Each structure stands twice: as C-alpha cells, then as structure tokens.
C-alpha cells in the first residue's frame, strides 16, 4: 500500500506512538491534541512522556516532513483517509469506562470527515464502541474499524513496530483490509474479526496478564508462609511450555493506566449483560490484598514501630521505564505506610517529570537513602540494583531493605550488614 494520509487524535502515549510509528512506516501523519501546551512542548522537542526511542523517531518524522502536530482538529482530519482515535477512557464512578472524550471528538469531526475515510478506534474502548461510533458519525460514506493497541509503556515503540499480532475488527472487509495494509512492512499474524471480538481481545489480554501477576504474587505470599522460594517455584513452573514465562514476575502488584482501569471496565461491562467475570473480579481483589500484605510485612519487620521510622521509597512510577505514576503500586504502598505513621520519603529517577502525587520526595537517591531506617525498592529501575550495597550501608541508618522487585543481590547486601527481605524467599543471614 502506498503512503496514506493519517490523522491521529490524542497525543498520549498511544496516540503519539501510533502517529510517530505510522510516519516511520512511510505515511503522512498529522497528530492533533486539544492541549496546546502539550503540542507546543512536542514542537519544542520536549515530549510529554518518557518513552524509549520515541523522541528520536519524532525528530526523524518531523525532519522527513511526514509528521506534524497541531491543535486544529477539524483541519487535521479534513483530508485524512484514516483517523485514529487515541483518546482517554478513564474509569467512571461506577467502574465503567468513560467514553465522553470519544463522543465529543466524533461529534466535532463527523461532518468534516472526507468521504471514504476510515475512523479507527485505537485506544481501549468498551465492547460495542465501534457500533456507537458508527451511530454517532451517522454517515454511510465513512467506515469504522476497531484496531486495539497492545503497547506497553516504556517499550511502546518496539511493541508497535514488532507486535505479536495486529487485530482488526470490522463490519466491512474492505475497510478492514485498508487498515491492515497501513502496517505495510510489519510481519506478524493478523486477526481480522468482528467489532465485539476485537474489542474483547483487548480487554481480555490485559485481564489475563493481570491475572497471571496476581497469581504469582499470591504464590509469593504462599511461599513466604511455607518457606519455599518463589523464584525457584516460578522457574520450575515456567519451564513448562504450556505455562510460559512472561508476566509471572512477582512484585508489588500491577498498576498503571491500563490494567486497573481495564479490569474494572470489563467486570462492569460483564455485569451489564448479566454475566460475572469472577476470575477478573478476584484478580482485582487479590492485587489490592497483596499490597496490604506488603505493608503488613514491612510493619511486622519494623516491630510495628512507625513513629520516627524513616522509610525511603525507591521508585514511584508503576514500573521502570516510564514516568507514569497512575495507580502506581509504589504510591499505594508508600501512602499506606505514611497512613500508619511512617515518615516516607520517595525517590524516582524520573523525578523532575513526576506529576501530582501526595508523598514527600527528593531529587537524588542519596538524599532518599540518607538516615533511612528502612528502604523499599518498589520499582525495578536499574539504578537501584547497580548502586553498590556499600553505598546503601553508608547512607542508611537502619539495615532493612524490602526488595519488592527481586532485583538486589541479597548475598552482597548481607555481606555489608544489610538484610534484604523479599516476599516468598528465606532471608540471607547477615555476616558479622
Ligand atoms: C499493559 C499491557 O502490557 C499492554 O499490552 C497494553 O497495551 C497496555 O497495558 C494498555 O492497555 O494500553 P502497561 O500498562 O504499559 O501495558 O504495563 P505492563 O508492562 O503490562 O505492566 C503492568 C503492571 O504489571 C506494572 O505495574 C508492572 O510492574 C506489573 N508486572 C508486569 C508485574 O508485576 N509482573 C510482571 O511479570 C509483569
């Protein structure tokens, strides 16, 4: 397929990645956002998100003349053959996905769409949204296609350009083929299906992955209770090819802008059609319980003495490789510790980019570790595992480290007098 004119509405991590990668594939792309500050920032070379390789590709796209940015929605879509909707669908009060942004944008563009244009739902939308968009557009000369994204924050560019599969949901095979052809040189399996199935694939992929993590975190707690080693058990499990190894790393629980929102939304969606997704509901509860268990473990090891106890929280984002703190387990755990009276001080390598969160934080890891009684490694940033155990020992007042990501070498820490506690592993004795 030749170069196509594409408009991408919304420049969050899905929209910005989609637009930039489509330009990289050779298409002519205009990205549009109603946030003028965001567009100005991108144009000045500062991306609103921390995403590996994205800044380079944005710069390349702009230099090639194939990638532009604007706040002018109607002008951007007027001559586009394809319009990707990459809009936020946050959780409403009742747990459902709030699609107000989609309704508003579709309402503003419907009469300006070019005849023959295809409107594509890219961001995660409730099942039946494609039909809703068709109704909102109300035109027979415009097609709608569902093309869910499977991009992980932090590796979104790689996930876009080297996907496991591309999913296209359509009610018109020609429109579906046209959207699939946009991915030109990308070699991967293609699933072309109906709208509801495509929309369900997206939700259930996230729900299933979240379920695996809740499973392994429960396993960690079980191993802790019986004296087994969770990492050894996981190794033994994952060598079974039927189980596989991905998304079975224990940790502080899953968070971010997708799993929490999407598991809530699909549970709610099921209840609306008289169904119950009990495993998904339990997955959510298990995740919340796991975070409470971690807070209990920390309290227990500090002798339940929180007053005057300084906790250094290492990592505030929901995982490494992103500056996103939405529904971050680190913040949930940090906040719970603060509520129990601990003096919590947070640090994250993306510090200057952190937006609105309620804990005290400092700009350097040294400032965070200084005089800490307890350190909690909540995010798997390499900085935390490459910092010498001696530095932890010199800076900290106490000798307890909770490694929620299993990234520290417990033997090396024990050798300098620090006890690294992990959920589901026996402690390594400190050598005097
Ligand atoms: C997730 C999905 O992985 C993407 O495929 C999907 O496109 C995206 O949501 C979305 O719906 O937009 P993301 O939220 O960026 O991507 O993060 P993940 O890498 O999936 O991690 C989610 C959470 O699970 C993080 O808190 C992470 O630390 C945790 N996790 C992940 C574990 O605790 N253990 C693991 O083994 C894997």
The separation of the N and C termini measures: 68 Å
- Output the radius of gyration: 23 Å
The coarse overall form would be globular
Biggest beta sheet attributes? 6 strands, parallel
- Secondary structure: number of strands: 14
Stretches with pLDDT under 50, minimum 5 residues: none
Mean pLDDT: 95
**Distinct bound molecules:** uridine-5'-diphosphate-glucuronic acid
Q: Determine the fraction of residues in helical runs and give it as a percent range.
A: 40-55%
Number of helices: 17
Largest beta sheet: what is the strand line-up?
Answer: 3-2-1-4-5-6
- Helix-strand category: alpha/beta
The proportion of residues in beta strands is 5-15%
Q: Explain this structure to me?
A:
By secondary structure, this protein is of the alpha/beta class. The radius of gyration is 23 Å and the shape is globular. It contains 17 helices and 14 strands. Helix content is 43%, strand content 13%. The strands form three sheets. A six-stranded parallel beta sheet has the order 3-2-1-4-5-6, sandwiched between helices. The protein binds uridine-5'-diphosphate-glucuronic acid. Uridine-5'-diphosphate-glucuronic acid (UGA) binds next to helix 9 and helix 11.
Short description:
The chain is an alpha/beta fold and 432 residues long. 43% of the residues lie in helices and 13% in strands.
Layout of secondary structure:
Layout: E1 5-9, H1 13-24, E2 28-32, H2 36-43, H3 54-64, E3 67-70, H4 73-78, E4 82-85, H5 100-109, E5 118-121, H6 129-137, E6 143-146, H7 156-161, E7 166-169, H8 173-181, E8 190-193, H9 195-226, H10 230-238, H11 259-272, H12 278-301, E9 310-314, H13 329-339, E10 343-347, E11 360-361, H14 365-369, E12 374-377, H15 382-386, H16 389-395, E13 400-403, H17 410-415, E14 419-421
Parallel strand pairs: 1-2, 1-4, 2-3, 4-5, 5-6, 7-8, 9-10, 9-12, 10-11, 12-13, 13-14
Helix pairs in contact: 1-3, 9-11, 9-12, 11-12, 12-13
């Amino acid at each position: 397929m030749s170069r196509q004119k594409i408009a991408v509405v919304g420049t969050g991590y899905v929209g910005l990645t989609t637009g930039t990668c489509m330009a990289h594939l050779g298409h002519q792309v205009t990205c549009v956002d109603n946030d003028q500050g965001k567009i100005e920032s991108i144009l000045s070379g500062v991306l609103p998100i921390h995403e590996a390789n994205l800044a380079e590709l944005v710069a390349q796209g702009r230099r090639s003349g194939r990638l532009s940015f604007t706040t002018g929605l109607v002008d951007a879509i007027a001559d586009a053959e394809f319009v990707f909707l990459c809009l936020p669908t946050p959780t409403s009060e009742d747990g459902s996905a709030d699609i107000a942004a989609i309704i508003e944008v579709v309402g503003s563009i419907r009469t300006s769409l070019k005849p023959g244009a295809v409107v594509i739902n890219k961001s995660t939308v409730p099942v039946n949204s494609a039909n809703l968009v068709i109704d909102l557009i109300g035109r027979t000369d415009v097609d709608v296609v569902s093309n869910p994204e499977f991009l992980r924050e932090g590796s979104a560019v790689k996930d876009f350009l080297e996907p496991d599969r591309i999913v296209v949901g359509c009610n018109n095979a020609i429109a579906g083929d046209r959207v699939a052809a946009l991915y030109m040189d990308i070699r991967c399996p293609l699933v072309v299906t109906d709208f509801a199935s495509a929309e369900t694939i997206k939700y259930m992929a996230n729900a299933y992955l979240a379920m695996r993590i809740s499973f392994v975190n429960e396993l960690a707690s079980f191993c802790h209770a019986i004296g087994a080693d969770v990492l050894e058990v996981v190794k033994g499990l994952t060598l079974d090819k039927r189980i596989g190894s991905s998304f079975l790393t224990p940790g502080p629980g899953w968070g971010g802008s997708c799993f929490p929102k999407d598991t809530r939304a699909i549970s709610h969606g099921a209840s609306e059609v008289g169904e119950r997704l009990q495993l998904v509901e339990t997955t959510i509860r298990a995740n919340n319980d796991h975070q409470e268990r971690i807070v209990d473990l920390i309290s227990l090891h500090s002798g339940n003495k929180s007053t005057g106890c300084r906790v250094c929280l290492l990592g505030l984002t929901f995982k490494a490789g992103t500056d996103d703190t939405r529904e971050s387990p680190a913040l949930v755990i940090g906040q719970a510790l603060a509520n129990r009276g601990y003096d919590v001080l947070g640090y994250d390598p993306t510090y200057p980019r952190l937006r609105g969160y309620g804990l005290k934080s400092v700009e350097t890891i040294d400032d965070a570790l200084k005089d800490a009684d307890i350190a909690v490694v909540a995010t798997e940033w390499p900085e935390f595992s490459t910092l010498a155990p001696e530095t932890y020992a010199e800076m900290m007042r106490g000798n307890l480290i909770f490694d929620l990501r299993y990234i520290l070498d417990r033997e090396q820490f024990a050798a300098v007098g620090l006890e690294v506690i992990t959920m589901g592993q026996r402690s390594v004795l400190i050598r005097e």
